[in-house]
Specification:
Layout: E1 37-42, H1 46-56, E2 62-67, H2 70-79, E3 84-87, H3 97-106, E4 113-117, H4 122-130, E5 135-138, H5 143-179, E6 183-191, E7 198-205, H6 207-213, H7 234-249, E8 253-259, E9 264-274, E10 277-284, H8 286-330, H9 334-360, E11 369-372, H10 373-381, E12 391-394, E13 398-402, H11 407-419, E14 426-433, E15 436-443, H12 463-472, E16 478-481, E17 489-494, E18 499-501
Parallel strand pairs: 1-2, 1-3, 3-4, 4-5, 12-14
Antiparallel strand pairs: 6-7, 6-10, 8-9, 9-10, 11-13, 13-18, 14-15, 15-17, 16-17
Helix pairs in contact: 2-3, 8-9, 9-12, 10-11, 11-12
Length: 507
């Protein structure tokens, strides 16, 4: 498919001795790019063809491709985009300029097409125009003069297309801003007299912005936005302060505030666009704030219900274990005592699960924060049932973006090493892993049996490790057990963006 231009124009061009077409392709016009014109030069005289091509491309702002026949030109047009075609008339039996023009238009090319000749033939000129030529001109006396004219006309045309493209882009951008649901206003800062108090004037605004401050029949255009702020609520007060900051010190602002008068929440941005101008953006985030409030209420309600249920179950388990202990004192049958012991062990496991749920319930209640990894481990060790002196920590300079209660993860890993793995030493250290970072917890205990590896983090096998996995997933972290015999080795993989390293201070 050939390139299509949005407008066509007749341009007078001439080169002595022959007729030429020029096809112009607008490269980058209207997009803020420097335009480079691509021209296709068609002539069956190779010497003249190469001479004109060299002169036309000498300054580097016009790229010229050549074709020695109309058939070759059509093939190039089908496989590449051009801004201009200049062609010799090329008398039969070769495809002449009119035939090339007719074929190019028939195949969809609607770009600039210029044809000129050394013959003053009105019938030929009419035929060219009727078939879609942008212009038909006789050639001048000197090729350099003709090339200079070509260059001038092509550059002027591309400049006009660039201006038109920028205008269309600006209109499209303005149309988009007028239709967005967020409020938008463009302001000009005006200084009244030497050393005068600066004021502002709204030069553009969409309907959403106007309806935020005025009834439907009024417009904000030409007004100082501060005259629209009556200071009745915190939203208007903070907006006035933000605008004063932009005017007096060039300080941009972003904030979210509720307007009591409008019963809405707004996310506000005040930004400098260019010297002496700024924009105000208002996003209605009322629905989001209500959803956040409802979610918080739901979380509090579920936490309360969970706490009550857990409290009642723990009380019943205490009673159950008490009755089981009394039963063991009254029973002489060894097999019955064994059953009672197993029932007591099951009750203790249930108690442990309930206590774990109470601890891990806090996870996800607060947004992630940056935490020194060593501090998180040390906090977790405070409640470990084992010799904390047997834990060696090497996490200097590492911070992780995690749930504020991530210390429960390290407490669980070390607890399991001492209680279940019978470990006497635990080493917690760090290592680089491509774009990720590892926190490794390795012990010298009995390790994890191979048959349990696959279900190690499944809630059906180990509730504590399942909750550990879920706690780390809050910020995209993962945990794996990677031991190859010997003690257990848990690797926590921290993704890029969720860790940072502080250089060690030089001694």
């Amino acid at each position: 498919m050939f390139t299509t231009l949005t407008e066509l124009e007749l341009l007078p061009i001439g080169i002595p001795g022959d007729i030429y077409y020029i096809v112009v392709h607008q490269s980058g016009a209207g997009r803020g790019e420097s335009a480079t014109i691509r021209a296709l030069l068609v002539n069956d005289d190779q010497v003249e063809l190469e001479t004109i091509a060299g002169q036309l491309s000498a300054d580097g702002d016009i790229s010229v491709d050549i074709a020695l026949s109309g058939e070759a030109a059509l093939e190039k047009l089908a496989n590449a985009k051009f801004d201009a075609v200049i062609s010799d008339y090329m008398a039969p039996p070769a495809m002449n300029g009119i035939d090339l023009l007719r074929n190019a238009r028939a195949r969809g090319y609607m770009g600039l097409f210029l044809l000129f000749t050394d013959k003053c033939d009105e019938a030929l000129a009419l035929d060219a125009i009727l078939n879609g030529a942008d212009h038909f001109l006789p050639k001048c006396d000197g090729s350099r003069k003709d090339v200079a004219l070509i260059r001038s006309l092509l550059l002027k045309r591309v400049q006009r297309l660039e201006v038109e493209g920028r205008r269309q882009d600006a209109e499209a951008y303005h149309s988009l801003l007028m239709r967005i649901p967020d409020g938008f206003a463009y302001h000009q800062i005006i200084l009244e007299g030497a050393g005068g108090v600066p004021t502002t004037m709204i030069t553009d605004a969409n309907d959403a912005f106007e309806r935020t401050f005025l009834p439907s029949e009024e417009s904000v255009l030409g007004r100082d936005i501060r005259t629209l702020l009556r200071g009745h609520d915190m939203f208007e007060k903070r907006l006035a302060l933000a605008i004063d900051g932009v005017i007096t010190s060039g300080t941009e602002a972003r904030f979210t505030e509720r307007s009591a008068e409008r019963d809405k929440w707004f996310s506000v941005g005040v930004y400098i666009t260019e010297p002496g101008h700024f924009v105000t953006m208002l996003s209605d985030v009322t629905a989001l704030k209500r959803a956040e409030r409802d979610l918080e209420q739901y979380k509090r309600k579920m936490a309360f219900i969970g706490s009550q249920v857990r409290h009642d179950l723990l009380n019943q388990l205490t009673a159950l274990n008490g009755f089981l202990s009394l039963s063991q004192l009254k029973v002489e049958d060894r097999s019955v005592k064994e059953f009672l012991n197993k029932a007591g062990s099951s009750g203790n496991r249930m108690r442990r699960i309930l206590e774990l749920s109470r601890e891990f319930e806090r996870l996800g209640m607060s947004p992630p924060v940056w935490i020194p990894a060593r501090s998180a481990v040390e906090k977790g060790l405070e409640q470990v049932q084992g010799d904390r002196r047997a834990v060696r920590i090497e996490l200097e300079g590492l911070e992780v973006l995690a749930d504020p209660n991530v210390d429960l993860v390290f407490r669980t890993l070390v607890d399991n090493a001492f209680l279940h793995g019978k470990a006497t030493e635990v080493h917690i250290y760090q290592a680089k892993a491509g774009e990720e970072h590892k926190i490794i917890c390795r012990d010298n205990g009995t390790g994890v049996p191979p048959e349990k590896h696959k279900l190690l983090f499944d809630d059906r096998l180990d509730h504590s490790l399942f909750l550990t996995k879920e706690a780390l997933a809050v910020t995209g972290m993962r945990i794996e057990e990677t031991s190859q015999g010997g003690g257990a080795c848990f690797e926590i993989l921290v993704p890029k963006g969720c860790y940072r390293l502080t250089p060690k201070p030089q001694s």
